[in-house]
TrEMBL record:
It comes from the Bacteria. Keywords: Signal. Residues 1-24 form the signal peptide. This is Uncharacterized protein.
Length: 147
């Protein structure tokens, strides 16, 4: 049986990329100067999401501790967004995104350093972590604009 890990993670990453289309539109250079914080928040959410999903799609067995530390850095970057956008729902969305990144980092720290078997199924915990990051990032992206 072939492994479906990469296909599953790639599909989740594609979904996240499509969800950010709206956020990218908010972060255009033509945006009014008053929306600079919103544009920067949208850009940071997109960058953090890309880093998280790319890491989850990669070889987690190679340096899980380093990857877990990376998720800690991503969490700090999202925490720094709290209070930067004039939108009541943004802070809650950023907090949820930060929590999802923290959980993904905790999962990555538990990954074995042994390479999975070729026919190994995708770990349900990996799917859950990836889905949680994706869902939380979509919510953060939809709330990063000032309202």
């Amino acid at each position: 049986m072939k492994s479906t890990r990469m296909v599953t993670v790639a599909a989740l990453a594609l979904g996240a990329a499509l969800a950010f289309t709206g956020c990218a539109a908010e972060a255009t250079p033509e945006a009014a100067p008053a929306n600079t914080a919103s544009a920067e928040a949208c850009s940071e959410v997109r960058n953090v999401t890309n880093g998280a999903l790319n890491t989850l799609a990669g070889d987690l067995a190679a340096d899980p501790a380093g990857k877990s530390d990376y998720f800690g850095q991503l969490t700090e970057r999202v925490d720094a967004l709290i209070g930067t956008v004039e939108n009541d729902a943004a802070d809650a969305a950023f907090s949820s995104f930060s929590a999802a990144l923290g959980e993904a980092g905790a999962y990555v720290a538990t990954v074995s350093t042994e390479a999975p078997a070729e026919d190994a199924e995708t770990d349900p915990a990996l799917i859950a972590a990836t889905t949680a990051v994706q869902d939380a990032s979509v919510e953060a992206a939809s709330n990063c604009s000032a309202q």
